Amino acid sequence: MVADRRQGPVRAGRADPAAQAQPGRPPRAQPPQAPAAAKEPEAAPAPDRKQDMSYVGAAARPPATVVFGLSPEDMREVNEAIAAAELQTSAEIRVVVSRGSLVQHPFFSVMWSSLVSLVLPWAIVVLWPMSALSILQVQAIIFLVVAGILMLPQMTERVVPRLALKAAARSAAIEAFLAHGVSQTSGRTGILIFVAARERLVEVVADDGVHTPLGPVAWAEICDSISREARKGSLVEGLVSGVRRAGELLARPMPQRPGDVNELSDRVVVI
């Protein structure tokens, strides 16, 4: 299920849970204790799976050290928040942060250039009558000039309508939900928190096992928790707040069971 803070859920495809269950997996690890003092930058991190970071889709370029305000230390903080939240519930929480543009094609630049080139010449004709051939020439010139401006890298993202960005965010969230195995948990109890950092959009995709007892209101609360802190200038605090809220909401219908296993990694995924 997909929900953002303004729109309702959208159903995503599901894998057969019976085929995906894997018995004999190690039990969920306890979260690391908070350090008594800040670590020196030179100190090597403890060998814990939560202190790693996954970067996907970055084969052509190395991952950035800081991802839209998220340093490696920030992402480790989110990893630990996920592990702590999952100690309250048998559900699984996955966090994906997108650092690239959701819409990378020039369709909207071409669309707006075409509209301007079609409309503007008729306003000119009212003041300066001209032949049909001259009108076509003016339209071609206007189209080339406007398209050249709107296709500049700093302009391409600004001409994409907000509704198109939301639709792209939902599509990317569902794709990440399926790609990172959230739909393959044994009880269909996984949720994915997807953050499009550049577009400032948050999406939550929930599997049937958790959407049925909680519904879209719960996912809207998670989105609001993240957005509230992010608007203050701290994305890491927003993610931590959203993950904690997710743990609280999921613990009500699905508290942690004895022998519960951690089916999904707690690491933040950056794409």
Description of the structure:
By secondary structure, the protein is of the alpha/beta class. The chain has two domains: 177 residues, Diaminopimelate Epimerase, Chain A, domain 1 (Roll); 52 residues, no CATH class. It is 44% helix and 10% strand. The longest helix is centred in the middle third of the chain and has 21 residues. It is elongated. 33% of the residues are buried. The N terminus is likely disordered.
Summarize this structure briefly.
The protein has 271 residues and is an alpha/beta fold. Helix content is 44%, strand content 10%.
Major sheet: order of its strands?
A: 1-5-4-3-6-2
- Average pLDDT over all residues: 77
With helices defined by DSSP (H or I, 4 residues minimum), what is the helix count?
A: 9
Q: Give the uncertain stretches in residue-range form.
A: 1-26, 34-67
CATH domain class of the largest domain: Alpha Beta
Task: Give the end-to-end Cα distance, rounded to a whole number of Å.
Answer: 21 Å
Order of helices and strands: EHEHEHHHHEEHHHE
Write the layout of secondary structure elements.
Layout: E1 2-3, H1 17-20, E2 54-55, H2 72-86, E3 92-98, H3 107-127, H4 132-150, H5 153-156, H6 162-179, E4 190-196, E5 201-206, H7 208-214, H8 216-230, H9 235-251, E6 269-270
Parallel strand pairs: 2-6, 3-4, 3-6
Antiparallel strand pairs: 1-5, 4-5
Question: Descriptors for this entry?
Answer:
271 residues; alpha/beta; Diaminopimelate Epimerase, Chain A, domain 1; 6-stranded mixed beta sheet; disordered N terminus
